[in-house]
Amino acid sequence: MTDTATETLISTGNQGHSHGPGSPVPLQARSERTTSYDVADFPVPNGREEEWRFTPIKALKALFADEAGTETVKIDAHGPDSVVIETVSTDAVKALTPQDRIAAVAWTQAGQALAVRIPNDAELTEPVHVNVAGLGGRGFGHLVIEAGRHSRGTVIVDHTGAGEYAANVEIVVGDGAELRVVSIQQGDTESIHVGQHDAVIGRDAKLNHVAVTLGGKIVRLSTNVRYAGPGGDAELLGVYFAEAGQHHENRLFVDHEAINCKSNVLYKGALAGDHARSVWIGDVLIRAAAEGTNTFELNRNLVLTDGARADSVPNLEIETGEIEGAGHASATGRFDDEQLFYLQARGIPEDEARRLVVSGFFNDIIGRIGVPEVAERLHEVIEEKLARTAALQEAAKA
User: Region Disordered: what ranges (predicted)?
Assistant: First the structure.
């Protein structure tokens, strides 16, 4: 995609703005919250703010400080020969405007961005892989992903390692393009990862964004989508499995302003162990000009043991009645003992029955990810987590 095309795509979207320091944050309008590139516009939160009230902010103290990182993050990127992978300045695209203090600090401190550009009309037969390995300490990152007009491609971003990491991801989907972005969070047991992903979808373009959280002590991802033209389509999928002491948080905002656009959000999570915690916030805004919108969001959580907690808050703002459809749903429940009894009554051992129930819970969403290597990895990690959960339950009975 040329610079001119990129600038046009971004400028026709709903570009973020700043109300400046001290401005109120109205709860009734998600779109009116402060967005700014200036760290000073975001006071250090105290935990009572709507956007921070579910987050363990004391553990994020180091990421709130507007100071250079203490460790670099090792990044390796590779893909088909036609893909351009280069280093650019953080303000080269500006499809993203920070929506909180950590994102603004990351924007300021990252300095440079890794850009992955899929050329116009290219059809990738292999995914682009971006591997981000934390080396300990505190680090910042910035990634730009651009899909040129009428291109087709997949980008897999894999986060592993240790330390505290804050990063911004800008996604631009050109007119008529189809892009799949899979972000996997699987840091070690003490790692912290806070990220903001902003996507701009062009005319008749489609984005499939998948957020997979399988590790890390604290992971907080904010995913925002807006449309630069009519006919845009966004599918946002998420899978997470929080174990004892882990906090997995996903926040989404889909801003419908263009006509005849679609969005579908489906996130599923499981929790097991003391103080396992998940938070899902889903905000969808249908503006007055967004006639013909069709949107739905769903979050489901499966609580496998005592001591785990899931918070789920879907929000829908509609400013026009001229839409195709809009809805949201949320459900959190404990392990279904009736299903377990049904399987055991047919001779299936309890451990195997539990595995089948949880696998069935995740299967439909894993099948929609569309990347076999990611789906296989998900199945393997979920099996490992279930085995640990079963072992803990057996030890508790002893």
Answer: 1-32
**How many other CB atoms sit within 10 Å of the CB of residue 367?**
9
Please determine, for residue 20, whether its predicted confidence score (pLDDT) is greater than 80.
no
- The answer to whether 235 and 248 are in contact (CB under 8 A) is no
What are residue 334's phi and psi, to 5 degrees? -85, 170
Closest by Cα among 105, 108, 99, 106 to 50: 99
CA dist 296 → 2, 175, 196, 285, 396 (Å)? 33, 23, 22, 11, 41
Q: Are residues 369 and 316 in the same domain?
A: no
In this structure, the answer to whether residues 256 and 395 fall within a common structural domain is: no
Question: 3-state DSSP call for residue 282?
Answer: strand
Verify that 294 and 387 share a domain, yes or no: no
pLDDT digits (tens, 9 = 90+) for 79-108: 999 999 999 999 888 899 999 999 999 999
Token pair listed for 107: 């924007």
Quick one: 327 and 346 in the same domain?
no
Is residue 197 a contact partner of residue 222, using CB atoms and an 8 Å limit?
yes
Q: What is the pLDDT of residues 109-129, one digit of tens each?
A: 998 999 999 999 999 999 999
Domain holding 151, by residue range, is 3-334
Shared domain check, 304 and 165: yes
Task: Determine phi and psi for 148, rounding to 5 degrees.
Answer: -70, 170
398 and 321 inside one domain: no
Mean pLDDT value of segment 19-30: 47
- Cβ atoms 211, 221 nearer than 8 A: yes
CA 159 to CA 236: how far, in whole Å? 19
pLDDT in tens, 375-390: 999 999 998 988 888 7
Residues 195 and 125 both lie in one domain: yes
Rounded Cα distance between 386 and 272, Å, is 9
Residues with Cβ within 8 Å of 290's Cβ and at least 6 positions away in sequence, in order, are 256, 257, 258, 259, 261, 319, 320, 323
Express as a percent the part of the chain with pLDDT over 70: 90
Whether the Cβ atoms of residue 200 and residue 10 lie closer than 8 Å to each other = yes
Burial of 253 (0-12, 13-18, 19+ CB in 10 A): buried
Domain final position from 334, 353, 368: 334
Tokens read off for 245: 């002491």
